[in-house]
Amino acid sequence: MTEQMRVRPTAVAGLGAFVVYVVVIVLVQSTSGVDYDDLAASSGNIWRAGILSLGVGAAVVAGLTVWFGWWRAATVETVRSRRRWTLVAPALYLLVVVGNLAVTDWGAVEVGFLLSAAALGVAVGFAEELTCRGTLLVGLRGTAREVVVWLTTCVLFGAMHGVNVLFGAEVGTTLQQVVMAGMQGSAFYVLRRVLGRLVWAMALHGLWDFSIFVQAASDGGTNLLGLLVYPTALVSLVAGFVVARDAGRSSGEPAVRSASASST
């Protein structure tokens, strides 16, 4: 790895960046005055409560990642996994996205809302993936085995959605979101490990949120492919575990540690 790391990758540094991101999101979103259930009510709400907080959070984490000297390690996988069959997990999530877009009544979606939903997709994909499967992952790799890295990034990715209760989301619904998001995070991890770049996880993550927002806003028909979400979540866990287990033998985990050896 040619990148010079200013800060040695450790779990403390990675977790610190994660906590800073969550705190920034909560603080910025709390100033919007928009409840969680009203986020998709208008394009203005999306910009004030969603895109603004995600944008500030992304800028902070990106700045920390660059200052740490972790940018390349956070966005590029040194050694890709050869378990290509595990791509079935993100592929199934993509199929659900296609279903959401297929049942969307595009004539009922205003151009302004469409643009704001697209911007939100880009923001959430970049911010949350850089935080969880980028900076956090690099920090954890400096301390833990890859299976622990995989599991921790999934758990914390799900847990970060728990802050929605602070903005009026129902506890029961939020708990379900926390669990499902954590399992979906395993599919995003697979994309990074197999395809070799974080941008693919960012893209799928952004498309997922975009498709949900526009489908709901258009009051379109029911996406029967949505029933795939539950079995796909289980497939994602299996796929992520297999990829992470193999990484203990021949993955980018040692590459991060060797690179950190020359850091200050």
UniProtKB/TrEMBL annotation:
It comes from the Bacteria. Keywords: Membrane, Transmembrane, Transmembrane helix. Residues 112-210 form the CAAX prenyl protease 2/Lysostaphin resistance protein A-like domain. The chain crosses the membrane at residues 12-31, 51-73, 85-103, 109-127, 147-167, 173-191, 198-218, 224-244. InterPro entries: Rce1/LyrA-like_dom (IPR003675). This is CAAX prenyl protease 2/Lysostaphin resistance protein A-like domain-containing protein.
